[in-house]
Amino acid sequence: MAIARTVDRRLFFVLDRTYLQLAQAADRALAEGSGLGRAQAAVLVYLGYHDGCTLTELSEGTGRRNAAITGLVDRMEAAELITRKQSYGDRRQRTVHLTDKGWSMREEVMADFRDFNTRLTRGLNETETAAVMKFLSQSVDNVRRPAAKSRRK
Fold it and tell me: HTH marR-type domain: which residues (predicted)?
């Protein structure tokens, strides 16, 4: 007879529960700081490194679906955080750029994330933090690869 556990210890479920708790904590930290949500904060951070990218690049870079990015960009454009411009190389494409207000808000978001990351890594040294980063990166790569055929019948 199997022993009943109140919490499943399979790695996926631990990661899922951890993600939910961290996402809620990040939402609170952003609300208390810049006042933005995680999705808008992610766009500002990404554009700080890739200003002038396409919507598709923004979608891929932030890990959000194209449909979600379109609405998010609409709202952020209305808030004057970003602007869309016609692409120089392809008139059918538009690129996304931070406005002065967007750059300023990005600085607030970056400060929020610096503080949050400091709290998140408290008690971990550089080697341990690097190991966590490597594991998270590798785990995504692992699940993107086709799974080996199962022998279950």
Answer: 8-141
